[in-house]
Structures are given as C-alpha cells and as structure tokens.
Write a structure and sequence with these properties.
Elements: H1 3-7, H2 15-22, E1 31-35, H3 39-45, H4 50-71, E2 75-82, H5 90-113, E3 117-121, H6 129-141, E4 149-156, H7 158-171, H8 181-185, E5 198-201, E6 220-223, H9 233-243
Parallel strand pairs: 1-2, 1-5, 2-4, 3-4, 5-6
This protein binds 3-methylbut-3-enyl trihydrogen diphosphate (2 copies) and magnesium ion.
Length: 262
C-alpha cells in the first residue's frame, strides 16, 4: 500500500505513473465513495443493449478496487443498486442481480489476495436467496482480512438507512437525551468507518441519488463526464490529485499563515 505498490501495477512512463507521483500518501482520502453511473448511456452510444453497459462496468469496478487497495485507501464504497432501481424493467434488474453474483464468484480470490474485507450495505432481506448466499459467502470468506474495507451499496437507500437506524435506536431503548451524532452514526451500515472524504460520480450527473445521505455531510465531490464503463485507474488518480488540492473548512475559516517578527 504505497507508491511502489501502485507503480508496479501501472504501465511505466504512463499518465497513471505521472499522476500517482503527484499524490501525497500522507493525505489520502480515508474513504472514497463512488456513484457508478452511465452504463446505459455507454451502451446506447454503441447501439448495444443496456445490459452490455452493465457488463462492461465490471472492468471499472475491478480496476478501481485494485487501485484503491494498492494506494492504501481504508474504505471504498461503490453504489451498485439503489432501492429506486427496482423501478427498472424486470430483465434489467435480474441482469444486475446475476452480475453481482458473478462478480462475487469471480473476484473473491482477488479480494483475498489484496486482503480486502467485503461488506454489503443495503437491505438484504428483499434480495432473492441465491443473491444472499453469494453475498454472505463473500462477507464470511473475507471477514478476517485486515486491509481495505470494500462496501457494495446494493438495494441501498440513504433515507431508508437513516429511518432504520432511528428504529434501532428506539428498539435498543436509547433515551432521547442519550442519542447524539456519534451514537446515531454507530447504528448505520457504515458503523466504525470514517465518513467519505471523497465522493465521485461518473457520467456528469450533479446529484446524490439517495446515496450515503448522513455520511457525505462534508465529503468533497468530484464529478466526471466519463461514463462508468470507461472509468479506469487514471480517473481515480485524477480525482485524488484534485481532492488533495481542496481546502476543507468544515464551516470554519482557512487557517492564516502565522507571521513571525512583525
Ligand atoms: C449505472 O448506470 C448502474 C446502475 C444504476 C445500476 P445506469 O444504468 O444508471 O446508466 P444510465 O444512467 O442509464 O446511463
Ligand atoms: C444512482 O444511479 C444509483 C446507482 C449508481 C446504483 P441512477 O442512474 O439510478 O440515478 P438517477 O436515477 O440518475 O438519479
Ligand atoms: Mg443512471
């Protein structure tokens, strides 16, 4: 998880190599969250069915996951299926379910090799048993890995997550005066994880689409016109380089340089 780990993986004298040398490894975003969007448009541009866009999107998932792990990002969250995505035609929904299963089966060894701990964030009780079996297998197989946390947001809704956390607080008998932001945060799927420092959305859309509403309170947002199936290591590196130029204030003011001896 260092400059060397990335350089041995990217082609020599490449754009990626140039970008990774610009990164300050002491100031990496601890948590990167991505709204993977634009698969349908990618397919439409090629006169292909939407399914081909979703299939092609898997390469982008693979690339981003491996790069994030090699860089030393602590948490990567990818938004793969929202609660609202059930509105899509049944054939598309079922393809997305099969792709998730296939991805988990094919990529589990890569996750193990990179010491990645997999977790699903979202409501699993509405998923079919075969999808749940595959998800649970990946979660338990990687449970003892100590490297990057990899969350897949699947059947996820930020609002539903907040409501469920409120229900859990009530069920646990937490008194109103005992509830604060820390305790509430510990009832969310992302309990114990840092909030996203960097939120990426592909395909140029400027919206959050019900993603991690609580956790992105102070995330830096980076939007690219690149469609998800075209998203590669280079784009993630560009996002991190740009993120490191930002001035995060959290509502305060920019610290002024101290002038000595005047
Ligand atoms: C993102 O691509 C994948 C999912 C939401 C599952 P889309 O399928 O939303 O692609 P566009 O936005 O229609 O291009
Ligand atoms: C957001 O993409 C959800 C995922 C990436 C899974 P959508 O394509 O569903 O979002 P909208 O409908 O454009 O807001
Ligand atoms: Mg979309």
């Amino acid at each position: 998880m260092s400059l060397e780990d990335v350089l041995e993986w990217v082609p020599e004298r490449s754009v990626e190599g140039e970008l990774v040398r610009q990164i300050d490894f002491d100031r990496l975003p601890a948590h990167v969250a991505v709204i993977m969007d634009g698969n349908g448009r990618w397919a439409a541009q090629r006169y292909l069915p939407r399914a081909e866009g979703h299939r092609a999107g898997i390469d982008a998932v693979r690339d981003s996951t491996e790069l994030a792990a090699r860089l030393g990002v602590k948490v990567l969250t990818l938004y793969a299926f929202s609660v609202e995505n059930w509105k899509r035609p049944a054939a598309e929904v079922s393809l997305l379910m099969s792709l998730l299963k296939r991805y988990l089966r094919l990529e589990i060894e890569t996750l193990m090799r990179h010491d990645i701990r997999f977790q699903m964030i979202g409501r699993d009780d509405e998923l079919s048993p075969d999808v749940r079996v595959e998800l649970n297998a990946a979660v338990s197989r990687t449970a003892n890995n100590a490297g990057m946390r990899f969350n897949i947001a699947f059947n996820y809704s930020g609002r539903a997550e907040i409501v469920e956390a409120a229900r859990r607080a009530i069920a646990a008998g937490i008194l109103p005066e005992e509830l604060d932001e820390n305790r509430f945060g510990a009832l969310l799927h992302t309990a114990g994880q840092p909030d996203p420092d960097l939120l990426i959305r592909t395909s140029g859309e400027m919206r959050v689409s019900n993603f991690l509403l609580w956790q992105i309170a102070y995330s830096e947002i980076w939007v690219t016109d690149t469609l998800w199936p075209d998203f590669r290591a280079r784009h993630l590196l560009e996002a991190i380089v740009d993120y490191q130029k930002r001035d995060r204030r959290y509502g305060g003011i920019k610290p002024q340089p101290v002038v000595v001896g005047r």
